[in-house]
Design goal:
The protein is of the alpha/beta class. The protein is built from 7 helices and 8 strands. 36% of the residues lie in helices and 22% in strands. Strands 1, 2, 3, 4, 5 and 6 form a 6-stranded parallel sheet that branches.
């Protein structure tokens, strides 16, 4: 299975990225191909609605590359921080560059991070309708983390909560067991 993990956090040191790194490793541990794309450095433009029907016709090379990466994926993990009660604009901008049915038949896992445990899944709850509208098969369980689930290193935030790690492992197995 080809797994794509999209990091919708613009932060250089990101809790969202720390969780995605752990989830990526879990997919790889089970023998799948997995890759994280940091949307901040991928440099997608603001979408042009002329190409909503076919992103591959966009004159922007990055849009075509992104659309192809999505097309080649079997499972997509959408990772986002909670910003002002919803998912990140960076992630929304990236998804807006895709065809309306870009997730047709693809398994989708939502992963969000917030400052505290009470709001950890709020961004995922706000996001769920987007991949469903794009034809995605959104998994019923989401991964929600908060600051206290991570330990800061010099260069990153590492997911260290055993409870969340166990949840991630369970969800990854669920998503890949019915291939």
């Amino acid at each position: 299975m080809n797994v794509l993990l999209l990091n919708g956090s613009p932060a250089v040191k990101s809790h969202t990225k720390g969780t995605l790194v752990f989830v990526e490793q879990e997919f790889k541990r089970l023998g799948h191909t997995a890759k994280i794309i940091d949307l901040e450095s991928f440099s997608l433009p603001v979408n042009d609605p002329i190409y909503h029907a076919d992103a591959m016709q966009s004159p922007n090379e990055k849009v075509r590359e992104f659309a192809q990466i999505i097309a080649d994926s079997d499972l997509v993990v959408l990772g986002t921080p909670l910003y002002h009660g919803s998912f990140s604009g960076l992630l929304k901008c990236a998804l807006d560059n895709l065809d309306g049915d870009a997730f047709e038949g693809k398994r989708i896992l939502l992963c969000s991070n917030a400052s505290g445990p009470r709001s950890a899944v709020q961004a995922s709850q706000q996001l769920v309708i987007v991949p469903r509208t794009m034809g995605g098969l959104v998994h019923n369980s989401v991964i929600g983390t908060c600051k206290s689930d991570h330990t800061e290193t010099e260069t990153a935030f590492e997911l260290t909560s055993d409870e969340i790690k166990n949840r991630c492992q369970k969800i990854v197995k669920e998503m890949t067991s019915s291939e």
